[in-house]
């Protein structure tokens, strides 16, 4: 005789509570076919599939359950989270808004909707959503943390600090908030406070990956290379091996560097631009062929083109210059920059239409770059990122005497700049963009490190492998030099992910 349905349901609930997700999904699926109008079976099936990370099937199960009970608020919320995992963002937004319409006091839904909007670069809407959630539940530490992340994205650094501090006041062991607070003070140039908060995070969680990484970064920028290595090793985050190699190389431990580089090369394709920079420099220093195949001849992969929409006198150019002059964007301290200002936050995520338009034009140029070099066999092209996302984007304004020392963008793939204002100089090299194979005070055993330069004009774009050193040659003219710079990222950004409810 078949087991009565109520007893089956109770068994499934008990198994779900015991995290037997596969068993629940299998049996609930069988029962759903037998009792297609039984809401609780669809609900249990959806929860089991969701917890088992079978997101496509979970989405179908939630949709079926919601057909039977369209006013089930929690289901709309869970459905939205699953849709977000599937990157079905417009549908996820609709599901969150449905949950909020059914229960306007559902502060978790307001918070998650904020994170979804922030992910799409809709920063002002995200701020409004986070703030609405906090009006409902002002004691929500995660809400204050998330608000801090979007304010930082927008370049409102003092406001971001206050939000992170409020999160910590409510939850004193909030390690992500300590770390992000440190990053925000770093962005404002106060390394003493930044390190204080990284250490606070590590006191509470010595394995905190991002705080370890940030401490390592602080120590290597302070040229305390051997001290930095254990922090990068503890982080095991993204390009940590590149950072360890950098420390070994800067410390002059060439044999240790070569041994680790060769070990890393055995682990997979040569897709780390930072390692490419180091390997090229080591090979030139030691008169050896460069074995790292990210982009061994990076000087040949620089792309220079005019963007028609940014021609002198164009409406977009005028609007961009006006936004840069008028927008309330905080300054980020930049030690390599002389007589200039660099913006904080992520410019292409700001609400101004001109910045969004420029971001789309840059994405178009990235695609053209890939097409231009499509016959190349190096990893730069063969492993070119399919998703065009920006690690960051910022403007740099320089005045008379301005220049930027040679550096690379360690977490980029392709880097570049669009030029909005250029000084007129008699010397062709003044204010030019120079690129090459040496910089950042790397140890030099010889002087044969080739460089080239481009003198951009207004409306030009320059794209180049992130493995190349580049700098701005000083200029003497009573005029501004303004560009918007950016990195295309090959992998998820190092910044701590937003808390979800």
UniProtKB/TrEMBL annotation:
The TPR repeat boundaries are: 39-72, 73-106, 107-140, 141-174, 175-208
Q: What name does the UniProt record give this protein?
A: Uncharacterized protein
Q: Which domain of life is it from?
A: Bacteria
InterPro entries linked: CHP02466, TMTC_O-mannosyl-trnsfr, TPR-like_helical_dom_sf, TPR_rpt
Statement: the UniProt record of this protein carries the keyword Metal-binding: no
Record keywords, A-Z = TPR repeat
